[in-house]
Each structure stands twice: as C-alpha cells, then as structure tokens.
Write a structure and sequence with these properties.
Strand content: 5-15%
Largest sheet: 6 strands, parallel
Shape: elongated
Radius of gyration: 24 Å
Order of helices and strands: EHEEHEHHEHHEHHEEHHHEHEEH
Distance between the termini: 12 Å
Number of strands: 11
Number of helices: 13
Length: 378
C-alpha cells in the first residue's frame, strides 16, 4: 500500500486523476501529475501491464494509489465509471476504439461527469491511416523527421532511448493538454477530450528547426548544423580515459575562454570560418585526448567556457551541483529524480513509493466513495 498522505501535496492538491494502466508515456504523465500533488488512482488490470517490471521498483508509479479492476468482468466498466464520475481527469493509452469497446470511452465517462477531461495518449493519434497500427517510440519519432536529425552522417541515426518520443513528445504534451483542458472545464463547466499523439508532440518539438530550415539556416542532414554536432564547438569529445566532455561555447566571449583554457588560442578565429571547422574539430579532439575527463573537468571548473563532463546515470546524483539542489532523491532504497519543476508556495516531494497493484483499494473506496471496489475483498 502506498504510504499515508499520498494525496495532497503540491499545486495540484485536490485534483483527482484516474489512470487506466498502460506502459510508457501514460504512466509517466500520471506520475508527473501525482508529483504535483494530484490524487492519482491507477486502475491496474489483473496480471499487470505485461512488461514484467517489478512493481516495487517502477518509480513511474510513485505518489499514486492503485486499485485492480478487471474491465472484462461484468462490473468492471461500471466501477471505472464510478471513479470517473468523481474525477477531474482520466488518462488512457489504448489503441483508438478500445476504451469504447470496454465501456469506458469518453462518451460513457462524460455522460457521468460532463466536466471530465479525458486524456488519450497514443503514438499515432486517434485518427489517420496509421491510427490502428502497433508501434513504439522509435517508429513515431522516425516519421516526424526528428530521429533522422540525430547522430553521425555516416552511421544510422542514434537512438535517444525513449526520451524524445514517449516522454517529451508524449507525456509532457498530454500533461500540458489535460491541465489546459482542466482550466477550461473549471471556467466553463465543460470537459473535453485531449488527443495527445506522440507524432504530433515530437513534430512540435522541432518547430524552431523548421523555421531555421525555411530560411536556409538548417541543412536537412545529420551533423551539418550548429546544434546537431556539425559545429566543432558544440558537441562531445573523448578524453584520455575513454570518457567524454560536452562542449557548447556558442557565444564569442564563452568561446574565447574555451580555446584559452583548452590551450589552442591560435584557433580562435576558426570559429567564424566554416572552412576551418574540420581543422578546429581535429585540434579540439586531440587536445581532449591528452587528459582524463576528471582532469579536464578541473581545468574548466568555475569558468564560463560552457564545458561539462558527460556523466553516467549512476554518477549524476553525486555531482556537487545536482546534490546541492536535491535534483535526485533516495526514497525506499531507490535513487530517482526528484519532482520537477519547483514551486515557492506549494512544494512537491516524493511522498510515496511505487503503488503496488491493488494495494490501496480500501483507502480509495473510502476516500472516493466507491464502495463497490471492495466487494471482492480487494
């Protein structure tokens, strides 16, 4: 069972959210709402979501509560509708039409609660030729042009884990959408359906790039531009110990510090001459290979040269700046990112560990006044 006090801490205190259990961007979006203080009830299915992740370590389910409802059972849909009747937001991530077939689609839910914001999280969206196709993050970002931007020109595009599609183009757009719709619902009394498609969100992330491309400021190929590794003073370099430094002194005054500290002041003028960029890149690479990552970190410490060590996931929580800010926290024996962003009047925190499937049924039945949840002793 989630720890006592899970509901109510943060700017979304008092907001009730129903999450129909899924994988990927839906659970992460619901976690963000829970981190911000919403009372998120995750409706788990019997047997789990299918990825085999140990529920006790799935931190995307932190700060939530869980009940188990079998939507294929006779009373399953009615229990979800009872929750929806008392909720502000519902989130689901099924293929288009599945929620309707299960009896918990937007029409059924909003018939019980006209103010409900019904958030739909998919890869392809609710309509279009691919709407019924299976897919995952990598396919969605491939079609938007964003995957093709990343990596070396003589190698296949680099895979950015599932951060770009699932979470940036998916979860974050769903959260923006349902909160905007909630604002509208509270002002007008009318809820609505939010269609959050990863293809839409990921395409939207590239808005600035499309503007640059329209005026010739961006070439439609990898590593040929200012921000994609094509520029020698915006990228990563290997150090003597096989680790890496990240370099990004785009402004002249920062670049001047960079070349001075790196020991190549004579190449300062090469910044403005793309014909010399390859020479500059090779010289920078050679210099970085002469010392270890930690030695170079010490060289650039306290400067405005815009250089940072590339840390691993395990190293990051120990960095002095992140440690001082509490960017990572330890909760229940798991090191994890703290809730973000930060609020001056309504601070957030990791209030509870991952919700275990069905572990909060009795509490939710009482707090949400849905006694039917416990009729089978859940």
């Amino acid at each position: 069972m989630a720890e006592a006090g899970t509901p109510g801490q943060g700017p979304l205190t008092g907001v009730r959210v129903v999450e129909l259990a899924g994988i990927g961007p839906g659970p992460f979006a619901a976690m963000l709402l829970a981190d911000l203080g919403a009372d998120v009830v995750r409706v788990d299915r019997p047997g789990g979501p299918g990825l085999g992740v140990d529920p006790a370590h799935d931190v995307t389910n932190r700060n939530k509560r869980s009940v188990i409802i079998d939507l294929k059972a006779e009373d399953g849909p009615s229990l979800v509708l009872d929750l929806a009747a008392r909720a502000d937001i519902l989130i689901e991530g099924y293929r288009p039409g599945v929620a309707e077939r299960l009896g918990v689609g937007p029409d059924a839910c909003r018939a019980r609660n006209p103010k409900l914001v019904y958030g739909r999280m998919t890869g392809w969206g609710q309509e279009g030729p691919l709407a019924q196709r299976a897919g995952h993050d990598i396919a969605y970002i491939a079609l938007t042009g964003t995957l093709g931007m990343i990596g070396a020109p003589d190698e296949p595009p680099a895979v950015p884990a599932n951060l770009l599609g699932d979470y940036a183009g998916g979860s974050l757009y769903l959260v923006v959408g349902v909160l905007a719709a909630l604002h509208h619902a509270r002002a007008t009394g009318a809820g609505q359906v939010v269609d959050a498609a990863i293809v839409d969100g990921t395409a939207h992330l590239s808005t600035m790039i499309h503007g640059m491309m329209a005026v010739g400021g961006w070439q439609d190929r990898r590593r040929a531009n200012l921000l994609d590794g094509g520029c020698p003073y915006y990228g990563t370099y290997e150090t003597a110990d096989g680790r890496h430094m990240a370099v990004g002194p785009l402004e002249q005054r920062f670049y001047d510090d960079f070349v001075d500290l790196l020991g190549i002041p004579e190449l300062g003028p090469a910044r403005k001459d793309p014909a010399r960029w390859e020479e500059l890149r090779e010289t920078i690479a050679a210099r970085f290979r002469t010392r270890t990552r930690d030695e170079w970190t010490a060289v650039f410490e306290g400067t405005d040269a815009c250089v940072a060590p590339v840390l691993s996931l395990r190293e990051a929580p120990g960095h002095p700046h992140l440690a001082a800010r509490g960017t990572f926290v330890d909760h229940g024996g798991i090191t994890q990112p703290a809730p973000a962003p930060r609020f001056s009047a309504t601070p957030t925190s990791v209030r509870g560990g991952p919700a275990l499937p069905g572990g909060d049924t009795a509490d939710v039945a009482r707090d949400w006044d849905v006694p039917g949840l416990t009729k089978d002793g859940g």
